[in-house]
Amino acid sequence: DWYSKGKNTATNYSYPAPFDQNFYLVMNLAVGGWFDGEVDETTKFPAEMEVDYVRVYDLKNRDYREPVEPVYEDVTLPDGAKQPLEDGNLVYDQAYEKAIKTITDGAQTLDPTYWNYVTLPDFGGKGSVDVTEQDGTRFASVTIDQPGVQNYAHQLIQKISLAQGGRYEVSFDASSEEARTIVAKVGGGAERGYTKYSNEEVIDLTPTVKRHTFTFDMAAETDLAARLEFNLGLAKAGVKIGNVRVEQVPRGEIDETATKPALPDGNQIYNGTFDQGAMDRLTYWQFDAGQTKGTGSVDPVTRDFTFKTKAQMKKGQSATLTQRGVQLQENHQYVLRFKADSKRIKQIQVKATNADGTTAYLPTHDVPLTKQTTTVEIPFTMTQATDLNSQLQFNFGLAKGEVTLDDVELIDITPVEVDRSPLKNVSFADGLNFWSSYVHYDAQAVVSTVNDAAKLAIASEGQEPWSVLLEQGNLQLVKGQTYQLTFKASSTVARPLEVTVENASYTRYFSQIVELGTEAKTYQFDFTLGQDDTAGLKFLLGKAAGSPFAAHNVTIDDVKLEVK
Question: Residue 42, exposed/middle/buried by CB under 10 A (0-12, 13-18, 19+)?
């Protein structure tokens, strides 16, 4: 019943992933941690772990079982479950007609049937929820006063019942005061270790209301108290969420020809690595042997597409590999990339056209091939009107031989307008406007501005690096751009300061520790973005090397983040 999905993949990796790859064995002696408690005077040192031997046995006397993709039947919820409404929606009170329960204390319990707004002081979140109406739809409108240090510092939650083996679709309308991201997921509660049933879907929001949809397979045991979560922390822009639905959907085949928005990494081609979907690993692709009597298949080990034919044809329809539903925008610039090699076949052709092939967007392009794998790049501009249902096609011709393809991607390389100075209120002349701060319960600090500079009066730095922090979020950073970060800082007690640039999933694009002294010093660093993202700049002044420190003040000023 296991399945896995990549961050930038269109669907699950093909069964039996992830058990079709090598694993590694880890033996680990860990000391301390959030769940086990911090190291203190009661911790016994030295500690040791003794490993006598490690043995791994191969299976003997019989063959390994042949992987057979699971077949799921329609599932029903047991008695006592929160049953779907007449329209199939597992979400109750879609229009927010009942009061949304606000949870600000970990001792409070969630409403088991209707909506909850959760903002716990442990994670620095502070805000409120109201219900507003827009274009006939009622929205839960979350105002965020303090964004907190985790995406779950603000949560909109409803408990739902899910049956093992079911496929579920989550859909909702959402917008925000300004561009930002949120994280949506379905998972278990504390009794299930907050395990994830769906992927954590990172959703891009703008002031325009848009519909968002994702599906997941319930591979875990039936859960009558699963949690639908919208995690809204880490950014100060308010969020509206409405028309929320969770419903069981058939496990029928994917509509492989439907229009396909770009994947999170910008690729317009789905399953370009030939490792996703059905066990043949050809989901989203259509192979036609034409009159070549050839075959098109994906090797389960190398995970690349191979066309083979033993027939030499003088005329007739060539074999093709096609992906439909490709989105091409008018006047946008694209680059098509793929890897290819061949045996005997000297060249293939590639083209991009409208759905019926009558209009060429990328005219037929001859691609010479050799036995050596090469990366092919073909740039082109979409000069026709926008077509959200175009097609990309590889034509293998009529010659006898073999062609291998892999890593197909179509990337929009249209230059985007870059905010060269995304950071606001860099000199704190406007107080802490655009900035937010957080002091965890295990720390004591007061954050303010004095003489147009940020001042953090720290009495106790707590047990985590983020126990005391100053940050500015919602920074729109652009792939390939090199940014220069500059700031001035000092401390009345010599201590480290950690500065990071990271997104809502804690992916760090920059991280540096500097040593502060009593004299103000200017620090300057450069880093380059590997992908477009919305990120935050954070100054971490919690627990660090040398803790604990005597009560001290840290001053930060003249913070700049600029494109070089």
Answer: exposed
Residue 277, Cβ density class (10 Å: 0-12 exposed, 13-18 middle, ≥19 buried): buried
Which residue matches tokens 């597992």?
Answer: 90
| Angle at CA of residue 563, ends 559 and 564, nearest 5° | 105
- Reading the block at residue 526, the tokens are 């450069």
Residue 51 main-chain phi, psi, to 5 deg: -110, 115
147 in Cβ contact with 234 (< 8 Å): yes
Between the CA of residue 380 and those of 231, 361, 402, what are the distances in Å? 39, 8, 27
| Cα gap 39→47, rounded to integer Å | 12
- Provide the 8-state DSSP code for 100: P
**Which of 190, 113, 198, 203 has its CA nearest to residue 158?**
113
Number of C-alpha atoms within 13 angstroms, CB side, residue 195?
11
Q: Which two tokens stand for residue 179?
A: 């561009």
Report yes or no: 195 and 218 within 8 Å, Cβ to Cβ. no
Per DSSP (E only), the strands in 233-373 are 239-248, 286-288, 295-298, 305-309, 320-328, 333-343, 347-353, 360-368
Contact call for residues 453 and 428 (beta carbons, < 8 A):
yes
Pull the structure tokens for residue 227.
Answer: 């949690």
Where do we find the tokens 């910008």? Answer: 266
Residues of the chain with pLDDT under 70: 1, 32-38, 72, 252-253
Question: What's the pLDDT score for residue 32?
Answer: 66
Closest listed residue to residue 461, CA positions, set 542, 403, 539, 533: 542
Q: Which residue has the tokens 């620095």?
A: 124
46 cis-preceded (ω within 30 degrees of 0): yes
pLDDT at position 342 is: 97
CA distance 442 to 144: 23
Residues ≥6 apart with Cβ < 8 Å to 123: 148, 149, 150, 152, 153, 233
Question: Domains along the chain?
Answer: 1-28+63-72+256-414 (2.60.120.260), 101-248 (2.60.120.260), 436-563 (2.60.120.260)
Q: How far apart are CA 339 and CA 494, in angstroms?
A: 54
HSE toward the beta carbon, residue 460, CA cutoff 13 A: 7
User: Any idea what DSSP says for residue 87?
Assistant: T
Token digits of residue 394: 């590889």
DSSP string, 414-460: ------S----STT-TTTTTT-EEEE-TT-EEEEEESSSSEEEEEEE
Q: DSSP string covering 108-131, please?
A: S---SSS-EEE--GGGTEEEEEEE
Pick from 304, 311, 312, 290: nearest CA to 341:
304
Torsion of CA 36, 39, 45, 46, to 10 degrees: 80
Backbone phi, psi, residue 313, to 5°: -105, 140
**pLDDT digit string (tens) for 177-227?**
998 889 999 999 988 888 899 988 889 899 999 999 988 889 889 999 999
